[in-house]
Amino acid sequence: MVVAQTTTTPLCGRLPFRSLHKDDFNPNPSFLPARSTPPSSLAAAASITTVPASSLPAVQTPAQARVDILSESLPFIQRFRGKTIVVKYGGAAMKSAALQSSVINDLVLLSCVGLRPVLVHGGGPEINSWLLRLGHEPQFHNGLRVTDALTMEVVEMVLVGKVNKSLVSLINSAGGTAVGLCGKDARLLTARPTPDAAALGFVGEVARVDPGILRPILADGHIPVIASVAADENGQSYNVNADTAAGEIAAAMGAEKLILLTDVAGILEDRNDPDSLVKEIDISGIRKMVMEKKVAGGMIPKVNCCVRSLAQGVRTASIIDGRVPHSLLLEILTDEGAGTMITG
Amino acid sequence: MNIPFCYLTLESVKVEYTPDAEFYKIEAIVRPWRVHHVSSGLLQMGIRGVTVSDVRGFGAQGGSTERHGGSEFSEDKFIAKVKMEIVVCKDQVEAVVEKIIEEARTGEIGDGKIFLIPVSDVIRVRTGERGEKAERMSGGRADMMSLTASID
Predict the structure, then answer these.
(1) For chain B, how many structural domains are there in total?
(2) Residue B51 lies in a domain
(3) Residues near A318 by beta carbon (within 8 Å), at least 6 away in sequence
(4) What was the pLDDT predicted at B102?
(5) Residue B35 domain-assigned?
(6) Residues B24-77: pLDDT tens digits?
């Protein structure tokens, strides 16, 4: 798949794609058009269109289909250009290398066409494996990690030091420029202990968000990657749930979209019928579904996080299937979407 | 489905407003980004005269905090809201209040409040009409209701 090699500047006159037939950086020669010297705009167009059509890598889509797809995505690009999109990254999309690279490439593409993506991540499995290496058993209470002092140290090291930096590095390799932050940087997130602190330890609720540092980063065309570790007024570290952190950051930035990548197809009207995916619903509708017990237990915190975000002015909040390649592009640049969109 | 208790009682008891007046001003304090939902909902039901102003306020009920822009705000911090003022005839008041609640509600703390104020008279500046003639807007709710020939 072709990606941008030059720095990503917010929608300049010339799309920053190199010509397609520099074989040294094109990893998938099957996507090259048959002609030897395509004009640079068509090369740019073809390189964008290969992204949504790349579900079957071996098939070469004809050039006409590619430009048709590209011109269909124009209204979406225009609608969202300059708008902030907060993506919470976790689950299967984070574990599989192929899905990971598709999410990263999607982020770089969105940044190139002028949207302003912000990535917020968790990292449960990594934290668990490092705790086990240290001989410490990971414990959960009502779905939240019990975080004592040692666990908090490990959480901070793994999330901010390892997971965050590896995502930054992947985005850089894909051609974007990423800046890795955690809640402590520039007081982005200020935490306070949850009411349940006696049972959970250093698990934090978001008390305040100061998005000031994100504006210059986004204005310069970089992608912020945020780890959900924060400190309280006194500097004590807290482990904040990544969904919550993403929702509050989206509210603080006045984001257009909040997108949560999950391991399920979305919210199903009937739990036993995978075809009953709810594509679009409003706040009162989703509250009704929760009351009618149609929403599965693990989904409820995500739904609550979405509703909280929408109540604070975020335009739409989506829960999408992270197991589908290019789910981000499907959700943002198509009408069908890749999961459930909750509107205000 | 989730009919608030006060509306259930309205079915059985005719609400008497005191002091009684022909017109009422409905003052709704709502979240700024819900104004568009509310005004399009009102237009759909034929309410065509609305005034909005940007205000700030606090009104949290003891202990609980309101979330605004990602941060929690406790009692004495002012948060930006929008005040919508609508003057209608007495018999349209309940429908307008229901519509505002339906469109503005999110279920989170900070959704706002609605106040009903009796108005003694309405005068149209352009023509000098007073009373019901001044309050009535052509193509508005009263016309819609008489077209469907049902009493709401």
Answers:
(1) 1
(2) yes
(3) A257, A258, A259, A260, A331, A337, A338, A339, A340, A341, A342
(4) 93
(5) yes
(6) 999 999 999 999 999 999 999 999 889 999 999 988 776 778 889 888 888 778
CB contact under 8 A, B67 and A207: no
SS3 A142: coil
| Bridge partners (DSSP) listed for residue A341 | A280, A318
Residue B128 has pLDDT above 80, yes or no: yes
Sheet architecture: strand order including B23-30: B51-57, B79-89, B23-30, B113-119
- Asked whether the beta carbons of A170 and A101 are under 8 A apart, the reply is yes
Minimum-distance CB partner of A283 among B71, B107, B110: B107
Residue span of the structural domain in which B54 resides: 26-114
Contact A313 B37 (CB under 8 A): no
Report ipTM for this prediction: 0.80
**Closest chain A residue to B111 measured between Cα atoms?**
A311
Q: Point out the residue among A209, A288, A310 whose CB comes nearest to the CB of B1.
A: A288
Domain contains B101? yes
Instruction: Measure the CA–CA gap between B102 and B106, rounded to whole angstroms.
Output: 9
Is B145 inside a domain boundary?
no
Across residues B125-152, what is the average pLDDT?
81
Query: Model confidence at A196, in pLDDT bands (50, 70, 90)?
Result: confident
CA distance B17 to B116: 9
Q: Which of chain B's residues have a Cβ under 8 Å away from the Cβ of A310?
A: 106
Q: Could you say which of A288, A291, A308 has the minimum Cβ distance to residue B108?
A: A308
CATH for B93: 3.30.70.120
A292 at interface of B, judged by CB pairs closer than 8 A: no
Calpha distance A321→A105 (Å, rounded): 17
Cβ pair B105:A284 closer than 8 A: yes
The token duo for A84 is: 């902030």
Q: With bands split at pLDDT 50, 70 and 90, how would you rate the model's confidence at A23?
A: very low
CA of A30, closest CA in chain B: separation in Å? Answer: 46
Chain A residues whose beta carbon lies within 8 Å of the beta carbon of residue B108? 307-308, 311-312
The token duo for B73 is 């705000």
Whether B71 and A307 lie within 8 Å, measured CB to CB? no
Average pLDDT (A238-249) is 94
Which chain A residue shows the shortest CA-CA distance from B33?
A: A313
* Residue pairs between chains A and B whose CB atoms are closer than 8 Å: 61
